[in-house]
Amino acid sequence: MRTILHSDANSFYASCEIARRPELKHSPVSVGGSEEMRHGIILASNTEAKSYGVKTAMPLWQARKLCPNLTILPSDFKHYISVSRKLREMYDGLSPVVENFGLDECWIDLSSRGITLKTGEEAALYLRERAKKELGITLSVGVSYNKVFAKLASDYKKPDATTLISEDNYKSIAWPLPASYMIFIGNKTRQKLNKYGIRTIGDVAKTPPECLKNWFGKLGYMHHANANGLDRSPVMKTGHEADVKSIGNSTTTPRDMRDLEDVKCVFTILAQSVSTRVREAYLKGKCVSISVRDTNLNISGAQKTLPRYTALCRDIIDSAMELFISKGFEKHLPLRSIGVKISSLVPYDAPEQLSIFSPVDTKIEALESAVFNIRKRYGIHAVQLGNVLLKDDFLSINPKEEHTVHPLPFFSG
After folding, report:
1. Labelling 103: which of 13, 56, 64, 405 has CA 20 to 30 A away?
2. What are the residue boundaries of the structural domains of the chain, listed by start?
3. Which residues are catalytic?
4. Separation between Cα atoms, residue 274 and residue 268, nearest integer Å
């Protein structure tokens, strides 16, 4: 039997900030986005703030209304990444088989060390004590024989707790919980399950798998297996990376985008970041996708396949604007945020059959390679296209530095 831990740093961003400001330890504290840059929402809160009803993604003004004495601190992602790396060093000291799930969560497979579920609880306590002593933050750690229940266990008691879910007790612990507590069951899936009278994890476990398959496709089988404790997905080993499926950036602009010139300027800024990140990963892609969000927070999107693989900023900009115009997204103006990504990725030097109808522009390739090298040395703002320089109020956008690390895929292969 496997022994897997899932470690979750409690209220991670807020905890990192309070560790630097001990005087705030027992006060309601949240980390919020920039109101000036219109990212004015709650990103994380400590237990004291949550007790007032302050929630993640809540507008800052609403959080202050609920909790007048709330301290809202600006985010510092470089610091959070630094703390996350220190946590990872602790996990690596226990096992070489560690899988990140965002900045603040990790699975740790202790099976190869001969650790049982019982001694796994001791390992969890060791991690919790080290995190408090060395980093000033608390962990909730789940111990189980598979990844799904290990994560469920870390969510079961917070903050600063260890929970064991075994083959003997999973029905008493997991089955009474709402179905949405289980990984991969989001709001839409929950609503659909509720429509059929399925409300708990136990209900999912007892539903015939063919019914779940009819409602959710192959994911239905996965939900049934997970609810019955049959997950066998591996924890990824340190140094093993999941295949990158896409690279993209999005941004909420300091002011609304009112016309096509504004949209093209922001797509240019985003495409510069995406192109740079694709080149850094030594990749190129063939499918460009865009997303737009209007001032009522309605979201639309579209994608197109290119005639050849590319990492060129110009190709990404042109494709994004072509999609925007051809899909009639002008009707959504003014816009609050937009995004662009490139997918269908292959190694940069992968061979491909070229067409005489889509020749490679070697001059543009050479020019963008030179710009890439300059930006790599001096930063993303060292060289800018003219249409960006004409929009002073968008110059502060830096998606290359501001993009966050997203969780690796749950399954390998």
Report:
1. 64
2. 1-166, 174-240, 246-402
3. 105
4. 10
Q: How far apart are CA 407 and CA 103, in angstroms?
A: 8
Instruction: Give DSSP secondary structure letters for 249-288.
Output: EEEEEEEEE-SHHHHHHHHHHHHHHHHHHHHHTTEEEEEE
Residue 203: CB partners within 8 Å, gap ≥ 6?
179, 193, 197
**Full-model pTM:** 0.66
Q: Give me the amino acid identity at 346.
A: V
> Span 174-240: which CATH code?
1.10.150.20
CA distance 325 to 331: 10
For residue 243, give both structure tokens: 């295949």
Residue 309 scores a pLDDT above 50: yes
Q: How many CA atoms lie within 13 A of 332 on its CB side?
A: 22
How far apart CA 348 and CA 278 sit, in angstroms, is 9
Q: Provide the CATH topology of domain 1-166.
A: Alpha-Beta Plaits (3.30.70)
Give the helix/strand (H/E) hosting 98. strand 98-100
Q: Could you tell me if 179 and 267 are in contact, meaning their C-beta atoms sit under 8 angstroms apart?
A: no
Question: pLDDT, tens digit, for every residue of 41-74?
Answer: 898 999 999 999 999 888 899 999 999 999 999 9
CATH class of the structural domain 246-402 = alpha beta
Q: Nearest 5°: phi and psi at 296? A: -95, 5
Instruction: Indicate the helix (H) or strand (E) that contains 142.
Output: strand 139-144
Question: Over the stretch 348-373, which tens digit does the pLDDT of each residue have?
Answer: 777 655 555 555 566 776 767 776 66
Q: How far apart are the C-alpha atoms of 357 and 76, rounded to whole Å?
A: 48
Per DSSP (E only), the strands in 295-355 are 299-310, 335-343, 346-347
Q: Alpha-carbon distance 344 to 319, whole Å?
A: 15
Round to whole Å and give the CA distance between 60 and 70: 10
Q: What are phi and psi of 366, to 5 degrees?
A: -65, -40
Cβ(268)–Cβ(314) below 8 Å: no
Other C-beta atoms closer than 10 Å to the C-beta of 107 total 26
